[in-house]
TrEMBL record:
Pfam families: Bac_luciferase
NCBIfam families (alphabetical): F420_Rv2161c (TIGR03619)
Residues that span the membrane, as ranges: none
Location of the Luciferase-like domain: 18-232
Name listed for the protein in its UniProt record: LLM class F420-dependent oxidoreductase
Length: 277
């Protein structure tokens, strides 16, 4: 099982290159970054973590800019998003951004995606929240067309363009990790993704994922796909969570780093190294 970290990289915390080097030096496997373009002050949408939204949500760096900087100071670790709010981007522009980061990282970029939860944030981008999942999937499909074809075109409900040229192409097809735990998420993974990115911050939550993991593997096998992996978006460092993830056959665990400075984050990384199985 692989081990990595996920974080809200902020303007008041550890910088991206320092974090990336520290992860690689400790023989961990991946750094993933969260994304929010902004946080509306209205705060009408409920946050799953409680009433008060943490400061980090409104202070995040653009993950793609930060990952590009991380790519230049590392050689081995995977670099990804967990998750990118794909529907809030123009898919032609985002396809170029992802391809550019992947080329700078020599094929190490992984594209974790999700529809998001903050309806006011979506509305500020002109997005109808009721169609957010459908729009996300169509954006992904349009980006794949751009990555895979010298002359790409796409005609859909939300995205429509005649043949275009757009380079660079990715160094390799970026794996798309579909985030979420809803009742139809496995359908989306099998139809549109390369991997599943569920959350699970306690041993019980991870154990509860086991039947769905078995279903995913069974359905993938029936479809002739043996390459679908599962990356767990976890909470604080917990050796019991790691042990439960290994029993479930999860490919990789990402523990959430605190949004502090170097003096806070590096000891946390050392704690994770000591706990990993």
């Amino acid at each position: 099982m692989e081990h990595g970290v996920v974080t809200f990289l902020t303007d008041y915390g550890i910088d991206g290159p320092t974090l990336a080097r520290a992860v690689e030096e400790r023989d961990l496997d991946a750094v993933f970054l969260c994304e929010h373009t902004h946080i509306p002050t209205s705060r009408q949408s409920a946050w799953h973590g409680g009433a008060e939204l943490p400061r980090r949500y409104s202070h995040t760096f653009d993950p793609f800019v930060a990952l590009a900087a991380m790519a230049t100071v590392t050689e081995r670790i995977a670099l990804g998003t967990a998750v990118s709010l794909v529907l809030q981007h123009n898919p032609i522009g985002l396809a170029k951004t992802v391809a550019s980061v992947d080329r700078l990282a020599n094929g190490r970029f992984e594209f974790g995606v999700g529809p998001g939860w903050n309806r006011e944030e979506m509305a500020n981008h002109g997005i109808d929240p009721s169609a957010r999942t459908a729009r996300m999937l169509e954006h992904i499909a349009a980006m794949r067309e751009i990555w895979e074809n010298d002359e790409a075109e796409f005609h859909g409900r939300f995205v429509d363009f005649d043949p275009i040229w757009s380079w660079p192409k990715p160094a390799s097809a970026p794996p798309i990790l579909i985030g979420g735990e809803g009742p139809t998420v496995l359908d989306r993974v099998l139809e549109h993704g390369d991997a599943w990115l569920p959350r699970g911050s306690t041993p019980d939550e991870v154990e509860a994922l086991a039947p769905r993991l078995a279903e995913l593997r069974s359905r993938a096998g029936d479809a002739g796909r043996e390459d679908i992996t599962v990356t767990l978006f976890a909470g604080d460092v917990d050796k019991l969570v790691l042990e439960a993830a290994e029993r479930a056959g999860i490919h990789r665990v990402l523990f959430l780093l605190p949004d502090g400075g170097t003096d806070v984050v590096l000891p946390y990384l050392d704690q994770y190294v000591a706990a990993r199985v």
